[in-house]
Amino acid sequence: MTRRARxxxxxxxxxxxxxxxxxxxxxxxxFGGTWHPYGDRAVQAALLQRTANTVxxxxxxxxxxxxxxxxxILFAAVLGTVVLLRRTSGERRVTPQPASVPxxxxxxxxxxxxxxxxxxxxxxxxxxxxxxxxFQGGVVVATALHLLYVGVDYRALERVRPVGLYELADGVGExxxxxxxxxxLLAGSAYLANILPLGTFNTLSSGGxxxxxxxxxxxxxxxxxxVLLARFLAQALEIxxxxxxxxxxxxxxxxx
Length: 256
Fold this sequence. Notes:
The chain has a domain at 54-84 and 97-235. 68% of the residues lie in helices and 2% in strands. It has helices at residues 3-26, 37-48, 54-62, 64-84, 103-125, 134-145, 147-151, 154-159, 163-186, 210-233, 242-255; strands at 91-93, 237-239. The chain is extended and about 80 Å long.
């Protein structure tokens, strides 16, 4: 395809997108008005499904299939990063040196780490009740672990972060969401349908499948962020020519 043809295809796509966007905007209610049909229906559906947090009801019940797509995008991004940043035959790992961290920073990081980890788990567990959920709580959990890197050094982080286990947990979280969706089909309903008992409103056991899907997303997001950062932090790699390395070793032996 020539450059001119590609520009025509791009122009047609942009014009089509602009037309659809303009048509959608013309059908929207006025900004700041009192008529919010989508919001009213979303709140009503959340109350019917006994989910106190309407946002979580939208994410994991009313539009749970969209959330599966969002989670899969993160999963695919991490998988691509693992493949692209894998160590090749011409690379070697440089042993990380102990870091010099100011005592105040070290004390702060060690004190905040358990608190941040607890807050992250709380946000995940209470996603169907209060603002937050698996996406937000998963990021907080992963960030809490990396306070060891900020407050101590990279070696301390490595001791509590077996990357292989987090890669496994990433896959388990993604698979759990898919399997929970298939449970709706086995129950004779639609994929990702809310088929579990709804429980008592505003309690941890409320919302049916919402807390389970929320937990699956929390596991996947936390593990994905840990694996993602691990691959970037592990880029203390040097590409060394084998002949040049052998020559340097020979020179060092002669000097010794």
